[in-house]
Write a structure and sequence with these properties.
The chain is of the alpha/beta class and about 400 residues long. Helix content is about 40%, strand content about 15%. It has two domains: about 210 residues, P-loop containing nucleotide triphosphate hydrolases (Rossmann fold, 3-Layer(aba) Sandwich); about 170 residues, P-loop containing nucleotide triphosphate hydrolases (Rossmann fold, 3-Layer(aba) Sandwich), CATH 3.40.50. The longest helix has 14 residues. The radius of gyration is 22 Å and the shape is globular. The N and C termini lie far apart (about 50 Å). The site of adenosine monophosphate has 16 residues, from helix 3. The site of adenosine monophosphate (AMP) has 16 residues, from helix 3.
């Protein structure tokens, strides 16, 4: 049975019956008011129910499951009481940071486990005793096979970004892990989209789940202003430098299609913009950690990234996302631009489009069901990209000259 809850219940953190310690942690984190997903999700989860939440990264979904889990923890046993599965190492690390923030001042041990780092170190941490383990499915299975993680005390399971985990092909791993957890347990599932596959997983492994389906999710996305800029391929770097100088982003992610492209672009940018860094899957975990730390702390103003690594990044201060290379897959565009406009902050997303890239532009517009306006940059007038079955011909394409964030 799925009971749907639509709309935003009028609830503050004070009305949720949270502990003093939790209210203190929320005050210290300066979370004044629950986000819509939190307002709807937390009370249901605190009742011990299985809950499905449709929410993207940036909506406060980590605290939506983190707060109730921390509140429901009991005395530490042999193994963790909660296991959170997430698709990438970066997301895993972000969840650990957020949970630590919410558990501040309490004796709660949270540990992240993921590939790319020696498992032995993670084993030692786990053996010292943990309450909450956050991991990628592959690494968690590795622990199960080595018998280095005892799941017999698990009461809460979270499947975070379930749609992405299924996309990446983690279904068999997730199912194997779920079969190792005892019953009864509470299963919480978060997903940006509730596809047929996600629903199948929920039906199979969740019990009388409540679905929290928020239309209020949307305004967060619409705080992002989106523009495309037509540019010949050989002038993209020049355009990028121009935009960085003109807009002076608080923080910016530049997306490229390939790892080599990311390296090359970062190298060329570094001459004019010190502090530019790059992140992609070929870098070692320790380098990636260092870069992410620098970016999170604001020391890196411009980060050049590829899709796989870049799209999981959650840094509140990002004001600009620049799609330097148009994404191969229209869905990646949605993930990329979701890096800005976090928690209702505004952001700008530029999409560089070459003269021959009308078709991928139209594919993106069809997916987001919206025409992306052109942004004309002086000195960079390129022929409008051509698209055979252009949806844009049906609309009057607005041309803007100065997005309102540009002067910041
Ligand atoms: P998430 O969707 O979990 O990735 O969260 C996005 C960002 O919002 C994170 O940086 C959180 O620290 C922050 N955040 C979560 N809940 C709140 C809240 N109630 N008020 C303000 N910021 C929040």
């Amino acid at each position: 049975m799925i009971r749907r809850i639509e709309g935003e219940p009028a609830t503050g953190f004070q009305d949720m019956g949270l502990s003093k310690a939790m209210l203190g942690a929320l005050a210290a984190a300066r979370y004044v008011k629950p986000s819509p997903i939190q307002a709807a999700f937390i009370p249901e989860a605190l009742e011990g129910r299985d809950v499905i939440g449709q929410a993207k990264t940036g909506t406060g979904k980590t605290a939506a499951f983190g707060i109730p889990i921390i509140e429901m923890l009991e005395e530490r046993g042999r193994g963790p009481q909660a296991i959170i599965l997430a698709p990438t190492r970066e997301l895993t690390q972000q969840i650990v940071v957020e949970i630590k923030k919410l558990a501040v001042g309490r004796d709660v041990v949270v540990c992240g486990t993921f590939g790319g780092e020696p498992i032995e170190r993670q084993i030692r941490v786990i053996q010292r005793g943990v309450d909450i383990i956050v991991g990628t499915p592959g690494r968690v299975l590795d622990h199960i096979q080595r018998r280095t993680l005892f799941l017999g005390d698990i009461v809460h399971v979270v499947l975070d970004e379930a749609d992405r985990m299924l996309d990446i092909g983690f279904r068999p791993d997730i199912e194997r892990i779920l079969r190792h957890t005892p019953q009864p347990r509470q299963t919480l599932l978060l997903s940006a989209t509730i596809s047929a596959d996600v629903r199948k997983l929920a039906q199979r492994y969740m019990y009388q789940a409540v679905e929290v389906n928020l239309s209020q999710d949307e305004p967060l996305v619409s705080t992002i202003q989106q523009f495309y800029v037509s540019v010949p391929h050989d002038r993209k770097i020049e355009l990028l430098q121009h935009l960085l100088k003109r807009d002076r982003p608080r923080q910016c992610i530049v997306f490229t299609r390939t790892k080599r492209g990311a390296d090359r672009l970062a190298e060329r940018l570094q001459r004019a913009f010190p502090g530019v860094s790059t992140i992609h899957g070929d870098l070692s975990q320790s380098v990636r950690d260092r870069v992410m730390k620098g970016f999170r702390e604001g020391r890196i103003p411009v980060l050049v990234a590829t899709d796989v690594v870049g799209r999981g990044i959650d840094v509140e201060n990002i004001s600009h996302v620049i799609n330097y290379d148009i994404p191969d897959d229209a869905e990646n565009y949605v993930h990329r631009i979701g890096r800005t406009g976090r928690m209702g902050k505004d952001g700008i997303a530029y999409l560089f489009v070459g003269p021959d890239q009308g078709e991928p532009l139209t594919a993106i517009e069809n997916l987001i069901n919206k025409v992306i306006p052109a942004h004309e940059v002086e000195g960079f007038s390129a022929p409008r990209p051509r698209s055979p079955q252009s949806a844009r011909e049906l609309f009057n394409t607005a041309v803007t000259r100065s997005p309102s964030l540009a002067s910041r």
